[in-house]
Design brief:
Blueprint (H helix, E strand, L loop, with lengths): L1 E7 L4 H17 L1 E7 L4 H7 L5 E4 L2 E5 L4 H9 L3
Length: about 80
C-alpha cells in the first residue's frame, strides 16, 4: 500500500482542508497517510516554509496548497 505524506503546520486552514479531502479518498484509492508538522523539524521548515500543505510520495511532490485529485489519481495509477 502506498504511503503518502502531507507536510503541514499548526493553524494552517489549507492543511486541514487537504487532510480532510484525502481522508475522504483514502479507502477508495487505497493509500496510507502520514501528517508531518514541518515546524518540528528545522530542515522541513526551511524546505517548505509557507508552501504548505504539500502532498508527497517519498521524494515526489504530487501537489501543494490544494489537493489536485486528478494528479493524485494519475500518480497512484502510474507504474513504478
Amino acid at each position: 500500500m502506498t504511503q503518502l505524506t502531507v507536510y503541514t503546520r499548526r493553524g494552517c486552514h489549507l492543511c486541514g482542508d487537504m487532510l480532510q479531502a484525502l481522508e475522504a479518498l483514502r479507502d477508495e484509492l487505497g493509500f496510507q497517510l502520514v501528517d508531518v508538522d514541518i515546524d518540528a523539524d528545522p530542515a522541513l521548515r526551511s524546505k517548505y516554509d509557507t508552501r504548505v500543505p504539500v502532498l508527497a510520495d517519498g521524494d515526489v511532490e504530487i501537489c501543494y496548497y490544494f489537493l489536485e485529485e486528478s494528479r493524485l489519481r494519475a500518480h497512484l495509477d502510474s507504474p513504478g
